[in-house]
Model the fold of this input.
Amino acid sequence: MVKKCLRCNADNDDNAIFCSSCGTRLSGARPGILGPRPVGADLASRASIGFVMTIIGGFLIVLGSLALSYISTFIWGFATPPWFATMPSWAPVLIGIGLGMFVIMSSVLIYMPGYEALGGILGIVFSILSIMVLGGLIFGTILGLLGGLMAVLKK
Ligand SMILES: [Zn+2]
Done:
């Protein structure tokens, strides 16, 4: 015996509670047996790609900041990029770690139901700001930017 989904018309097993095709609760399923639709199914359709890209971008920005004096010395021969020349060498490192942490916090917002767009916009802003600390060799900046865009588009 099969149970037809009212929404997409797919055939489902008679014992099925949710449609195997579209996830809609099937009529005749005993309510309360699993409560409302499982949270995991919703999270899967949430801005999960944006979340992953943004959190990796944030960690790359933190790592790049920790290595900033090595990277700067390699490129410019000084422990800080030229635009930080008036600051002590630890200052841009701290700024970079802070920006990376903000990008990571933005990714947490992206993961939270209803906050995808806000997290995405914050992720984009902090990723752009991280260019000043070379944004994890720019890979962190690019990932954070794309992840933020994906979140705004709810991908
Ligand atoms: Zn269905």
User: Anything to note?
Assistant: The pocket of zinc ion is lined by residues 5, 7-8, 10, 19, 21-22, 24 (CB under 6 Å).
